[in-house]
Model the fold of this input.
Amino acid sequence: MPFTRNTRLLGITSALGITCLSVAYAVTLMIGLVLLPSPAEPIGDPYFSVLEVLICTMMPLFVALFVAVYAWSPARAKGFTLVAVVFSGLLTGLTMSVHFVILIVNREAAFANLSWAPLLISFRWPSIAYMLEILAWDVFFALAVLFAQLAFSGSRLAAWVRVLMTVSGVLALAGLSGVIANDMQLRNIGVVG
Done:
């Protein structure tokens, strides 16, 4: 895949989109956290739903960005960046599925009184949805950025991008320590990544 003007535009547009949506996500998250009646309570609506929609909107842009990085990457890194595209696709498919299901199911009255529902569709440990989200972000995201960073070299900016992507990937992988230790506070290392 050649790096064309359109591919460059795809990369720039998707990076800007991710940046704008990430800022909107951070602002919504902060507002939701500030308005919590207790730190032990989960973020409620409308903030929770807005966060779900933002993440589902952001993820296709993530894949588009990795496709642009693949097209831009030098021949020596093409194989690595193709692997990064695959992992970004796995991340996107899995996290969008989790967030979409939770967004829709949380609105369905049929699930509201089921005692087992939180074990399946909540972001509280040890729910299935939370486990899948950890797989998406602490494994697939980490592998995507660790493979993609191999494309960046040659300039000072590229060196910084490579370092930041490496740190991000290593921190995301380190979030798995929370699963191993059964301590979700440790998982926050991965969230920082």
Summary: The chain is about 75% helix and 0% strand. The radius of gyration is 18 Å.
